[in-house]
Amino acid sequence: MILGDELRELPGPQHDGGPDTAADLRKMALHLETAAVLEMKARRTTDPAQVATLRRRAEQRRRQAARLRARLAASGAAVPGPVRSR
């Protein structure tokens, strides 16, 4: 056996890794990616009303991702923490 090859247990509650968990992880990633795209569009546009709308929508997607992360963390499927992708 080589040092570092030993098995390590993950701390905290264990999760089943079922289809709901995978779907929630995909949704969380989609929300974060969408928020990043909306922010990029907001930086490129010159219309102040559109900038405000795009940033508001980006923040909504980040909040949705944060809720999903909190639910996943409670079940042991994700690391708790802030979701920021700016």
From TrEMBL:
<protein>
    <submittedName>
        <fullName>Uncharacterized protein</fullName>
    </submittedName>
</protein>
<feature type="compositionally biased region" description="Basic residues">
    <location>
        <begin position="54"/>
        <end position="70"/>
    </location>
</feature>
<feature type="region of interest" description="Disordered">
    <location>
        <begin position="44"/>
        <end position="86"/>
    </location>
</feature>
<feature type="region of interest" description="Disordered">
    <location>
        <begin position="1"/>
        <end position="22"/>
    </location>
</feature>
